[in-house]
User: Which sequence fits this backbone?
């Protein structure tokens, strides 16, 4: 398997953070959060590996969203 670039490692690490955050939500709404996170990653799957600006922008936007959704007061997410 080819070695991952630093940015690729950042994206995978962020994906794992998202899935870990899902575990903190109530069990009946976890599928909603998990589906939302997966959907956001799938929506941007077409971004090229060399499109660094876009990837960094999406990571920043995603981290801000994760911070918001990780708030214990948010119990469910609707698409």
Assistant:
């Amino acid at each position: 398997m080819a070695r991952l670039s630093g940015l690729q490692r950042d994206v995978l690490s962020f994906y794992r953070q998202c899935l870990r955050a899902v575990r903190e939500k109530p069990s009946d709404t976890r599928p909603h959060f998990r589906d939302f996170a997966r959907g956001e990653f799938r929506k941007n799957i077409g971004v090229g590996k060399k499109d660094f600006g876009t990837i960094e922008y999406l990571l920043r936007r995603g981290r801000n969203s994760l911070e918001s959704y990780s708030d214990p007061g948010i119990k469910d997410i609707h698409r």
Observations:
- The CA atoms of residues 35 and 52 lie 26 Å apart.
- The first helix runs from residue 6 to 22.
- The chain has one domain: 6-70.
- The mean pLDDT is 92.
